[in-house]
């Protein structure tokens, strides 16, 4: 569904908005959000990333944009362009901190005001997709983010889990959250789903397997696929490398590009 603000605004030319949610921390939500953005870019799309994970903004590091600065223009904040071609733009609280390791210790109202500013005051220009990376769990910040985005008809949420039952249980709560706030669920991604040994290609299911897929089946939402653990992906995120361009032979590559293909198909259905 195309974003359509009643009164124009900074998101009026953003065609599709996608939120990435996870029930618990550390399951790879920011990694999946970043890789979805890069995979959509690989498919020729112009993509923005809005990092509203106020307490743990990790995307500037993942995109090697740590030392870049956000500037102001008449329309609001100019996002950071990650590449020379300006096909990936990023806005993150990380750019507004004095030092990258500074902590954001704010009470709810201040966080909510910042989220509203992030949603309304970034001059994105024309984008095919805006990917919104949220904090883990379901908090006031999620409600503020969804409320602020609601006038722009977000396409929905991608939920990220790891395969084990404890993480899957938390995603169940995310599904309830989406239902309560009227946010469509695009699908569930099972991340860290098996480790393919680079030496003998044997797959070991370190965190068990299949929990995300089973939950998707039970809940009647699409399953977007299993992304295996790949040490090259960890390192790429650590050093801001363009993983999909540098490691097309990785076992995670087909999984990530197929998630992007699903999103592209879904977006074209609703356009
Ligand atoms: N499929 C994967 N293969 C290898 N490493 C991964 C994979 N997914 C995530 N990681 C690594 O796991 C760590 C946690 O990932 P990430 O920061 O994306 O999690 P998160 O859910 O966004 O965490 P939080 O929101 O709690 O900060 C990172 O070091 C990341 O590079
Ligand atoms: S999976 Fe195969 S190559 Fe990898 S550590 Fe085990 S035995 Fe060795």
TrEMBL record:
Cofactors (names): [4Fe-4S] cluster
Function: Component of the cytosolic iron-sulfur (Fe/S) protein assembly (CIA) machinery. Required for maturation of extramitochondrial Fe-S proteins. The NUBP1-NUBP2 heterotetramer forms a Fe-S scaffold complex, mediating the de novo assembly of an Fe-S cluster and its transfer to target apoproteins. Negatively regulates cilium formation and structure.
Subunit description: Heterotetramer of 2 NUBP1 and 2 NUBP2 chains. Interacts with KIFC1. Interacts with NUBP1.
Gene Ontology terms, MF aspect: 4 iron, 4 sulfur cluster binding; ATP binding; ATP-dependent FeS chaperone activity; metal ion binding
Places the protein is found: Cytoplasm, Cytoskeleton, Cilium axoneme; Cytoplasm, Cytoskeleton, Microtubule organizing center, Centrosome, Centriole
Manner of cofactor binding, per the entry note: Binds 4 [4Fe-4S] clusters per heterotetramer. Contains two stable clusters in the N-termini of NUBP1 and two labile, bridging clusters between subunits of the NUBP1-NUBP2 heterotetramer.
InterPro entries attached to this UniProt entry: Mrp-like_CS, Mrp/NBP35_ATP-bd, NUBP2/Cfd1_eukaryotes, P-loop_NTPase, YlxH/NBP35
A GO biological-process term: iron-sulfur cluster assembly
Record family assignment: Belongs to the Mrp/NBP35 ATP-binding proteins family. NUBP2/CFD1 subfamily.
Gene that specifies this protein: NUBP2
Gene Ontology CC: axoneme; centriole; cytosol; nucleus
PROSITE patterns: MRP
Pfam families reported for this sequence: ParA
Signal peptide range: none
Residues that, per the record, bind ATP: 23-30
Protein name listed in UniProt: NUBP iron-sulfur cluster assembly factor 2, cytosolic
List of residues binding [4Fe-4S] cluster: 197, 200
Organism: Leptobrachium leishanense
Gene3D superfamilies: P-loop containing nucleotide triphosphate hydrolases (3.40.50.300)
UniProt main location, coarse: cytoplasm
HAMAP family, alphabetized: Mrp_NBP35, NUBP2
Keywords for the protein's UniProt record, in alphabetical order: 4Fe-4S, ATP-binding, Cytoplasm, Iron, Iron-sulfur, Metal-binding, Nucleotide-binding
């Amino acid at each position: 569904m195309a974003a359509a603000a009643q009164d124009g605004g900074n998101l009026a030319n953003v065609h599709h908005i996608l939120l990435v949610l996870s029930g618990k921390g550390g399951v790879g939500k920011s990694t999946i959000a970043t890789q979805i953005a890069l995979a959509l870019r690989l498919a020729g799309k112009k993509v923005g990333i809005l990092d509203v994970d106020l307490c743990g903004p990790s995307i500037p590091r993942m995109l090697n944009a740590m030392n870049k600065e956000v500037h102001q223009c008449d329309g609001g904040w100019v996002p950071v362009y990650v590449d020379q071609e300006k096909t990936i733009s990023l806005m993150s609280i990380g750019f507004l901190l004095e030092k990258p390791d500074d902590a954001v210790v704010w009470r709810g109202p201040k966080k909510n005001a910042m989220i509203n500013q992030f949603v309304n005051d970034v001059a994105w220009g024309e984008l095919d997709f805006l990917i919104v990376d949220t904090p883990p769990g379901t908090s006031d910040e999620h409600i503020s983010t969804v409320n602020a985005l609601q006038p722009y008809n977000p396409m929905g949420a991608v939920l990220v889990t790891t395969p084990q039952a404890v993480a899957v249980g938390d995603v169940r709560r995310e599904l309830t959250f989406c239902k309560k706030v009227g946010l469509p669920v695009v699908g569930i991604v099972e991340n860290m789903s098996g480790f393919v040994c680079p030496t003998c290609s044997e797959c070991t299911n370190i965190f068990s397997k299949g929990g995300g897929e089973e939950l998707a089946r039970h809940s009647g939402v699409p399953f977007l696929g299993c992304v295996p653990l790949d040490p090259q992906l960890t390192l790429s995120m650590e050093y801001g490398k363009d993983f999909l361009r540098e490691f097309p032979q990785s076992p995670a590559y087909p999984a990530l590009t197929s998630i992007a293909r699903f999103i592209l198909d879904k977006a074209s259905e609703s356009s």
